[in-house]
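Data card: per-record layout.
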Amino acid sequence: MSDVVYKSKCSVSVYELLKKYWGFSEFRALQEDIITSVLEGNDTLALMPTGGGKSLCFQIPGLYKEGICIVVSPLIALMKDQVANLHKKNIKAIAVYSGMSSGEIDVALDNCIYGRYKFLYCSPERLTTEIFRVRSSKMNINLIAVDEAHCISQWGYDFRPPYLKIDEFRKTLPPVPVIALTATATPAVMEDIIGKLEFTRKKVFRKSFERKNLSYSVLFEENKNDRLVKMLNKVKGSAIVYVRNRRKTKEIAEFLRKKNIAADYYHAGLEYEQRSMRQESWMKGNTRVIVCTNAFGMGIDKPDVRLVTHMDVPDDIESYFQEAGRGGRDGNKSFGVLLYSNSDIINLTDRLEHGLPTVEMLRTIYQALANYYQIAIGAGENVSFDFEISPFCKSYRINPLETLQSLKILEQEGYISVTDAVYIPSRLMITVDKETLYKFEVENKKYELLLRTLLRAYSGIFEEFININEHEIARFTESKWEHVITHLKELQHFHLLQYQPTKNAPQLLFLQARADSHVMKFDYTALKKRHNSHSFRLTAMKQYVTTACKCRSQMLLSYFGEKGAPRCGICDVCLKRNQFGLTDFEFEEITLQIKKMLSLKPCTIQELVNNNIKVKEQKTLKTIQWLLDNEQLNLNDQNEIIWNE
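The structure for this 645-residue chain is written out next.
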């Protein structure tokens, strides 16, 4: 570890901050180098695997330097999780996101100017609003952290156009460094991130994505549920089971319970209390297996997950790598297993052939959204709505999968933004001074007990929006919670306070005024680029599933640009290879010689063996057998061996 210590005016070093707030005496690999780069004022790109400690790389510099760090993140759940974790450490942080009222956002941004906050989390969409630009110009911003930075690239699997506005926003500020962080970036995406953010003094840090303790396997299985039970009986400990739709989460969890395996299910359609209870039960180990959609896992750091199983084939390597990577974060051996059947391959092929929705479909979905929320042409800019896809699709008799794909492209075209379901508790702020409130209370005894309860139970209620619980207030005031809500709304009508009830639904935000769907403008060049990128990712996923002759870890690392990685020795492919008793060098040398011969003409087995006289005959035969089993070699009509390209 370097001996460099940064001293502030108050003589607090970054190591003391690390110890004081996080309880660690040393940084993990690369963290110190990344923090050093940021503190030196460099634009910094940090590529670290899931669970590698990315957030510390901007939280330490943001905390160390005077001023406030703006953290751009696309996920409300992740923002809320990081803000809550910072609060537990007594670090002042706040988040601004869809679902908050304009009043809440106004107060939050004011507090960032005057309230000595150290971190402001926001979505990229927020940067483009007038109120954010005006207020941020008054903040002492010390750093811009761009989380999930792959979203800035049109080559990325999760492209978000508002990320392209980050550099524009940065130019409105005095010189301030940027740190971009991601756990999933191909070489093309890396270059895109650096270019789109216009890095000047750039530094790139990359930690290998290799997970030496994680065994990857791809298994063909028509009876997936029975195979899952066999794996759970063999691999002890906590497990995550990923599926593509909500219905299957419940079905598989019930199936596992019938097999005496403690399991539960999780998806974004559940009530917040249900999601919280099930997640907590799994985190504590009371529930062994959580069966879920991809709504589960982001921001959850359970170190002892021994098995992550995918029952359906994901759309891309990035998603699979991130989800499988939630296993074995404690460094002990864990398993990432992908089960596939013939129908999965058919579905993959179908998605490749049919590609993305047509422009006509995009116009139809956009028009349906405008009708659904009754938004007139020219209205609705920066207005968000609760959004549930099932009732929306039923109302207009449209296909949910096509709708999801269309919503994604409408996002990428900059028309809308859609978030996953996230729980936003009830919030309240008193908007008059204490004297005015007391005068009202004296003249309106009906509200006296409620107002006094609010003042006793919630500190800071005059300065900012505070999370409240109507059920607790009802208990303190010995009334029904419905009455509490009614009275709070009445007090808001009297302009004494602002009250925002609980939200627990996905949010759909119109990023610009509603357009006429018949004349909507689309970037056809970008649409074609996304279609090609979509096909590239699906093809890579199909190759990963159907290839059984190359180390799984090598395939994954190669996708992310790590060439020449060693065989892992523990994936399903390597375990079969290991049975042949060949070293990597021997196998590669024999395979290279066989390929060279077959590039000239088909050969018999004996000809291949005779040509490898420097190698024992048995080793050549084992290599040929392996290559035949894994379909790299085939037999022609003359029973000669040919190389299968």
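Known properties of this structure: Residues 1-11 have pLDDT under 50 and may be disordered. The two ends are 47 Å apart (CA to CA).

See the next section for split statistics.
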